[in-house]
């Protein structure tokens, strides 16, 4: 059903704050925004014939994470040996085209489809990279706090123009 | 290839390569070859144009008419299973005016039609349609204008290879000692391996030789570059213990490295769980292959020039999931002097449960691949090496050290009575595999045959 405007706005505010935590490198605080059953998946995209129902692989992924594995990645990110992010990438999330739906019987759960553009620059290099795509997020209210329970990232890239995904989308 | 079309090596490129060759046996490599346009152009002909290239695994095209689009160097090929069931490698170039005829990376089609003038080909390559044939082409012998096929194709345990050089020795002969080790891995199960989904593809701004060198036998980098994987528990074979094992120069530039415990009372088999080991048909292995497989913990290698693989047990979630054996197989496709496209497949033995395949996939994706906790870090030095190799001063003056394990360097010694193919050293504090890769590379590059 259509999400009431106030709720819709609350969700957008939540995602903007969440993106700020990522872009500011506050990953531990970011983890706190995940429900215990959180999942995060980036399926591999394959250029298919026009008749194919989807370009997204149901088998292959770039990432397929739980809260536990995200915690592991965050611990790694702050460790002395995170060469992948030393110096750290400068990321900037641009979130737009928020589309929300919810189930009549579940007023504490909202699904969003969001377009994103993620800038990544690093070191003193004048070059930079963008990732573009759509996020399918589910947020759930837990003890009065909105948390993300599911993030599916549908990239606009079949070949990813980056050397790693040591950043978060 | 028409001999007159083969580019001669420029005086400059030849001098660079000969300079490298002159220092290699002292364990000195030259950074300049890692980012140079002339060298890159010569490699496309002399290395990628002459050797066996991996294109696809049979399991990616299981049904008649299935195809995938793949590359050798800078040429694009349709790898398909024809309506007759036969696997072919067809150049994706319409013989009429040169346009591409395939518009997807994967699909199923009995025919391919060029969008330019509509020439249409059966998936065995035959030209079957030329619009307005009577008015336009009534004298044309269609039989002469089919798609161009890769000169030779061979299938090895389901892995489809092609070479652009008709005179290339057979795949088995080209693989030299490496064939024996690959036979050991792929024959463990009667059913062999299959891909687990489509390959990951991503771009590293690095020269392909750096990646090939790394997988040939660079175990030394684990203790610094990959230290985080020990700290978070992804890798659970202790560092020093893991250096116990062998580097094997397997011939023709191929290198393979085993972390091994030949004294282990229990069979190790890369730590495959018992229910998987039960599916192995050990009769497929010779006595010696079995001896090696029993003691193996980790195996990593590079098939010359740019095909790398790795089998080892890793944990995707150390708190909850035990280390799970995984297999990654990748091609470092050269996209230029300073860029590779990584094609990264995860595979597993076909006759294992869906549950185990998923577990193995998770372990593989979590550690190797674009977001793998191992692989996240690899591209960092690879890219700076490549950038540094362009430096005018560095290119002319830098010598790099490739001396580990040479006489008087460290503890590695050649194993004199090595019972398996190739030349082996123990332990893995050793860079003979990398020298072996470059020795063969330089021979290929400087050959005027």
TrEMBL record, chain A:
<dbReference type="InterPro" id="IPR032710">
    <property type="entry name" value="NTF2-like_dom_sf"/>
</dbReference>
<dbReference type="Pfam" id="PF00866">
    <property type="entry name" value="Ring_hydroxyl_B"/>
</dbReference>
<dbReference type="InterPro" id="IPR000391">
    <property type="entry name" value="Rng_hydr_dOase-bsu"/>
</dbReference>
<keyword id="KW-0560">Oxidoreductase</keyword>
<comment type="similarity">
    <text>Belongs to the bacterial ring-hydroxylating dioxygenase beta subunit family.</text>
</comment>
<dbReference type="GO" id="GO:0051213">
    <property type="term" value="F:dioxygenase activity"/>
</dbReference>
<dbReference type="GO" id="GO:0019380">
    <property type="term" value="P:3-phenylpropionate catabolic process"/>
</dbReference>
<keyword id="KW-0223">Dioxygenase</keyword>
<protein>
    <submittedName>
        <fullName>3-phenylpropionate dioxygenase subunit beta</fullName>
    </submittedName>
</protein>
From TrEMBL, chain B:
<dbReference type="GO" id="GO:0005506">
    <property type="term" value="F:iron ion binding"/>
</dbReference>
<comment type="similarity">
    <text>Belongs to the bacterial ring-hydroxylating dioxygenase alpha subunit family.</text>
</comment>
<feature type="domain" description="Rieske">
    <location>
        <begin position="52"/>
        <end position="150"/>
    </location>
</feature>
<dbReference type="GO" id="GO:0051213">
    <property type="term" value="F:dioxygenase activity"/>
</dbReference>
<dbReference type="GO" id="GO:0004497">
    <property type="term" value="F:monooxygenase activity"/>
</dbReference>
<keyword id="KW-0408">Iron</keyword>
<dbReference type="Pfam" id="PF00355">
    <property type="entry name" value="Rieske"/>
</dbReference>
<keyword id="KW-0560">Oxidoreductase</keyword>
<dbReference type="GO" id="GO:0016705">
    <property type="term" value="F:oxidoreductase activity, acting on paired donors, with incorporation or reduction of molecular oxygen"/>
</dbReference>
<keyword id="KW-0001">2Fe-2S</keyword>
<dbReference type="InterPro" id="IPR036922">
    <property type="entry name" value="Rieske_2Fe-2S_sf"/>
</dbReference>
<dbReference type="InterPro" id="IPR017941">
    <property type="entry name" value="Rieske_2Fe-2S"/>
</dbReference>
<keyword id="KW-0479">Metal-binding</keyword>
<dbReference type="GO" id="GO:0051537">
    <property type="term" value="F:2 iron, 2 sulfur cluster binding"/>
</dbReference>
<dbReference type="Pfam" id="PF00848">
    <property type="entry name" value="Ring_hydroxyl_A"/>
</dbReference>
<keyword id="KW-0223">Dioxygenase</keyword>
<protein>
    <submittedName>
        <fullName>Ring hydroxylating dioxygenase subunit alpha</fullName>
    </submittedName>
</protein>
<dbReference type="InterPro" id="IPR001663">
    <property type="entry name" value="Rng_hydr_dOase-A"/>
</dbReference>
<keyword id="KW-0520">NAD</keyword>
<dbReference type="InterPro" id="IPR015879">
    <property type="entry name" value="Ring_hydroxy_dOase_asu_C_dom"/>
</dbReference>
<keyword id="KW-0058">Aromatic hydrocarbons catabolism</keyword>
<dbReference type="InterPro" id="IPR043266">
    <property type="entry name" value="RHO_NdoB-like_C"/>
</dbReference>
